[in-house]
Amino acid sequence: MTGHAASPPPKVYGWCPGALRPMMSGDGLVVRVRAPLGRLTPEQARGLAELSQRHGSGLVDISARANLQLRGIREDAHRALIAGLRDLDLVDEDAEAEARRNITLTPFWRAGDDSHKIAQDLAAALTQARDLKLPGKFGFAVDCGAAPVLTDTAADIRIERGPDGLILRADGADTGLPVTAETAAGEALTLARWFLDQGGASEGRGRMHQLIARRTPPTVHVAAAPDATQISPQRPGATTSGLLVALEFGQMPARALAALADHGALRLTPWRMLLVEDISSLPPLPGLILDATDPRLRVSACTGAPGCPQARAVTRDLARDLAAAVPVGQHLHISGCAKGCAHPRPADLVLTATNTDRFDLIRNGTAADHPLNTSLSADALRAAPELLTEGS
Ligand code: SF4
C-alpha cells in the first residue's frame, strides 16, 4: 500500500556521496568523510570542525552508516577542503577506493579485538581490490562483540558472532560461513564477488538482501546467525567504551564537534550518536543530547527544506515542536518527501510533506505508505498535537 496520489516519486540516486565524489544539495555540496575505523582523534575532529566552518555552512551530520557529512560546502572550496582532509589523513587515494571502503564498525570495539582486527584487514583489502565494482550503496558491517548491535544498520555483508563463533553472512540470509579473525576479510571479498557473479548488480545497482530473496546463499553458509531478538535500541549515556552522546536530528554545529574533541577521541555510530572514548559524563553542550529521556530522541526528521532540493516543506522545526507530544515508546518521523531518508523503516507515526504547508499522516508505516489523514498544516498540528494519535 505505497504511493501518494498527488506527489511525483522522489529521485533515487543509488549512490552515497563521498569526500572525493560529493553530492549537490539545496544548501551546497554534501561531503561525506569516511573516517578510518569510524574514529576521529581530537586533532582530526577539531580539524574537521575548522574545515566545516571555513568552507561550508558550519553544520555537520552523522549518517546512518556512521560517517560524518560536512554540509553547505561551496563548490569553489572543494579542492581546498580535500587538501585539508588529506592533511588530516581523512581521505582515500581516489573516489573508487573511497566508495569501496564502505564499512560500518561496531563503536564498542577494543584495540586488538576481533572487530578491530577484521575492520582493519577489510579496509586494506577493499582499498587494494581495484577490480571490485560494487554498487554505490553496497556496504559491510563488522559487529563481532558478544551481542550484535548493528542488525538494524543497513549492510550487505555482515561479519558477526554467532552462537558457535564468528560468521560471515549475506544480508537477508539466516545462516553464514564460519570464519576466523584471520580469514574474515578475505572471505568477505569472496562473498562480494559471488554477489556480482550471481547478477546481484545487473544494472550497476542492487543489494544483497534482494539477491538472497531470489537465490540461496552459497551452500557452505550453514552456521547459525546471532540472536537479534533481544537487542534494545542504544541510548545516550555511559557504556564500557565511553559516553554515547546524541545529536539532535543527527546534526550538530561544527563548534559542538570541536568542543567534544576536548574531552577525548570520538567514535561515529549509525544511531545519530557519537561515542566519546573513555569518559562517563560531560557538561551540557549546545546541540547535543545527553539525557536518555529527552523527547527529541522520539522524533526523526530529514534535512527537509531548504537544505534538500526534493523537500516540499521544512521538517525539523515541526519535529522539535511535536516531540513532547509523542508518547513514550513511540517514534514520529517527519519526512520532507515520500523518500523517507531519515527513517526508511516503518515508524509508529509519520508525517510526509506534500507541499510547503501540508502533511499526510501515516500510522505504522513508511513515508511512502497510504495516509490515514491528509492535508494537515503545521499550525494545525502544533495547535492540536493530539491529531497525531487521535483514534489510535
Ligand atoms: S526524504 Fe527528506 S532528505 Fe530525503 S529526499 Fe526527501 S526531502 Fe530530501
TrEMBL record:
<keyword id="KW-0411">Iron-sulfur</keyword>
<dbReference type="InterPro" id="IPR045854">
    <property type="entry name" value="NO2/SO3_Rdtase_4Fe4S_sf"/>
</dbReference>
<dbReference type="InterPro" id="IPR036136">
    <property type="entry name" value="Nit/Sulf_reduc_fer-like_dom_sf"/>
</dbReference>
<feature type="domain" description="Nitrite/Sulfite reductase ferredoxin-like">
    <location>
        <begin position="22"/>
        <end position="87"/>
    </location>
</feature>
<dbReference type="InterPro" id="IPR012798">
    <property type="entry name" value="Cbl_synth_CobG-like"/>
</dbReference>
<dbReference type="InterPro" id="IPR005117">
    <property type="entry name" value="NiRdtase/SiRdtase_haem-b_fer"/>
</dbReference>
<protein>
    <submittedName>
        <fullName>Precorrin-3B synthase</fullName>
    </submittedName>
</protein>
<keyword id="KW-0408">Iron</keyword>
<dbReference type="InterPro" id="IPR051329">
    <property type="entry name" value="NIR_SIR_4Fe-4S"/>
</dbReference>
<keyword id="KW-0560">Oxidoreductase</keyword>
<keyword id="KW-0004">4Fe-4S</keyword>
<keyword id="KW-0479">Metal-binding</keyword>
<keyword id="KW-0349">Heme</keyword>
<dbReference type="Pfam" id="PF03460">
    <property type="entry name" value="NIR_SIR_ferr"/>
</dbReference>
